[in-house]
Sequence to fold (350 residues):
Amino acid sequence: MLNAFFGLFSHDIAIDLGTANTLVYVKGKGIMVREPSVVARHKRSKHILAVGAEAKRMLGKTPQTIEAIRPLKDGVISDFDATSAMIHHYILMVHEPRKRSILPKIPRPRVIIGIPSGVTEVERRAVEEAAMLAGAREAHLIEEPMAAAIGTGLPVEESSGNFICDIGGGTTEIAIVSLGGVVVNKSLRVAGDEMDEAIISFLRLKHSLLIGEKTAEEVKIAIGSAFPTEKTERQTVVRGRSVESGLPRSLRLSESEVREAIAPVIQEIVDALADTIEEAPPELMGDIIEYGIVLAGGGALIRGIDQLIATELKMPVWVADDPLTAVVRGAGKLLDDPALLKKVKVSGRR
Fold:
C-alpha cells in the first residue's frame, strides 16, 4: 500500500550505471539523463560539489582540497558514498520540483539497474544498497548483456541463439541469450578505459608525450579505428607535456598510430568472442552463424570494429542502432513488462 502511494509521486526509472557514463530512462518519457559517471567533492567534508559533465570538466584540474573521481571501476562500485550520491542526484533531476516538494521522502521510484554479468554477490548488494540509500523504493538488477539484447530488439524469449557483445567503458559484456536466459557469458574487464590507457602509453613511449585520460578519450573518439576503412587517413592534433623538457608540446597524430595503440585491447575482445563461441551449445551454432553478433556500447562506435571482428571470426557482425543507449533502453522496456523482468532479473530488493 505504501509503495503504491509513493508510486503516485515518483517516476519509475531504469539506469545504465556505467564506468564512463550514466544514462537514466524514465518510464513514459524516454532517456532523460546522459551524463559522465564523475563526482566532484570536498576531500575532508565529503560534500558533493558537482556531478556528471560539470564534475568531468574538473578532472585533472582540481586543487588539493577537491577531488574529482569516477566512483565506478571496471563496472563495479569503487566508492560507495559517491555512487549513492550520484544516483540520488539523477533521481532528483528527473522529478519535477513540484513533486519533490510534496513530501520530504518523495521521490521514491522503482529502479532497474544494469550491472556487469561477472560481478560478485557482494558487488551486487553494493549496487542495491546504493540505490536504496539514494531513495529507491525498489531496486532490481539485470545483467547488462541481457539488457542490451532486449534494448536492441533481439528475440530473447525465443529458442533461437542471440549473440550480444556490449563494449562499455570498464567492461566488455559478451553473452549468448536464449529462452529468456543467458546460456554462455563472459565479462571481460577490458574495454574503452583500457583503450584510453593504451593511447596514453603509446604516446609516452613512442613520442615522449604525456597526456591525460580526458585527452586520450578525445583522441579515441576523433580518429580511433580498428580496421583500415578509408584511403584518406584522419589526423588530429594532440597537446600534452614533453617527457624530456617538461614543457607543453603539440603533436599531429594519425589514425593508423591510434589503431596500432588500441589493437592489443581489441584483440583481447576478439579472443573472448572466439572463446564464447567455442563454449556455445552445438544446437545454437546454426543461429549464431546465421544471425551473427550484435555490437552495443560505446566501443561499438569505433570505426571498423565490426569489420575486424567479422574478418577474424568469419561470421556476420552488426552494430546496433544507437549502441550507447542499448542497455538503458532494454532496462526501460522491463519497466513495462513485469513478467519478463521477473524472468531475467538477477536480484531485487524492496
